[in-house]
Amino acid sequence: MDAVLSVEDLNVTFSGFKALSGVNLNVFDREIVTIIGPNGAGKSTLLDAIVSKSPVSSGHIRYQGKEITNKLPHEVARMGIGRKFQNPNVYNELTVFDNILLALKGTHGILASITAKLTQTKKSKIHDALERTGLVDKAFEQVSSLSHGQKQWVEIAMVLAQDPSIVLLDEPTAGMTGDETYMTGEIIKSISKSHAVVVIEHDMEFVKQIAKRIVVLHQGQVLAEGSIESIQANPKVIEVYLGRETINTAA
Ligand SMILES: Nc1ncnc2c1ncn2[C@@H]1O[C@H](COP(=O)(O)OP(=O)(O)OP(=O)(O)O)[C@@H](O)[C@H]1O
C-alpha cells in the first residue's frame, strides 16, 4: 500500500538552527500516527513544513505520490491536507453551522456565504462534519456560548468540511477537561475510519486511547517509532521524554 503522505530526509533550518534533521515519516490511509516528544523537539515544525507554513531547506514531502515540498499553503490545503492549529480559530459571533459553512471548499466571503442558497451537497457536508464531531445539537448556537473543548471540535469540523484525505491536528486536547479529552479521542478514532490522521499530543493517557503508531521526535530527529508498548519500553524515550512516569498499559 502506498503512503498518503511521505516525508523523506526532511531538513528545516531557522537562521542556522536545525529544527528538523533527516526526518522520515510515512502516513497511510485510515491510520492514526501520533507524534510525541519534549518541548522544542520539532513536532509543530514538522506539521508546519508539511503545509508549507515553514520553508523546507532540503528533503521531500509527497502527498499521494506528488511532490508538495514548499508549494503554496493554499495549494497544499486544496490538494487535501487539512491542518488544525493549537488555538481555536473560529468566528465566535457566528453559529457553529455558519462557521462550518465558511470552511467549505469554494466558499468566498462571509456575507455571500451565509446569504447564498445552500445546495443539498453543502448541507450534507456540513451535517456530516457536525455528526462526526458530536455537534449536531449545537449547530445553531453561537460559537461564543460553547466551551473551549466544543470550540476545538468546531474547528475539527471546519477542517473536515474542506474534504481533506489527511487531517493534521496539533495538540487537539490542549486546555480540555478530562471528559472533553476522552470525547476528542473518540472523534479522532471515528475520523480515522475514513481519513489518515496525524496528531501531536503531550497527554500520554490520551495517546494510549488513540495511538496505533507513535513517532517520537527529539531535537529535530526521529528518536523512535512503534506501538505504545514498544515506545513505553524504549530506554531512550524514557530517558528524554517519559522519565520515570511509567505508563501502565494494562490500565
Ligand atoms: N519560525 C521559527 N523561527 C525560529 N525558530 C523556530 C521557529 N519555529 C520553531 N522554531 C524553533 O524550532 C524548535 C522546534 O520548535 P517546535 O515548535 O516545532 O517544537 P515542538 O516540538 O512543537 O514543541 P512544543 O511541544 O513546545 O510545541 C524550537 O527550538 C523552536 O524555538
Automatic annotation (TrEMBL):
ABC transporter domain boundaries: 5-244
CDD domains cross-referenced by the UniProt entry: ABC_Mj1267_LivG_branched (cd03219)
PROSITE patterns listed in its UniProt record: ABC_TRANSPORTER_2
Source domain of life: Bacteria
Keyword set includes Membrane: no
GO cellular component: plasma membrane
InterPro entries: AAA+_ATPase (IPR003593), ABC_AA/LPS_Transport (IPR051120), ABC_transporter-like_ATP-bd (IPR003439), ABC_transptr_urea_ATP-bd_UrtD (IPR017781), BCA_ABC_TP_C (IPR032823), P-loop_NTPase (IPR027417)
Gene3D superfamilies: P-loop containing nucleotide triphosphate hydrolases (3.40.50.300)
GO molecular function: ATP binding; ATP hydrolysis activity
Sorted UniProt keywords: ATP-binding, Nucleotide-binding, Transport
NCBIfam families (UniProt xref): urea_trans_UrtD
Name of this chain's protein: Branched chain amino acid ABC transporter, ATP-binding subunit, putative
Organism: Acaryochloris marina (strain MBIC 11017)
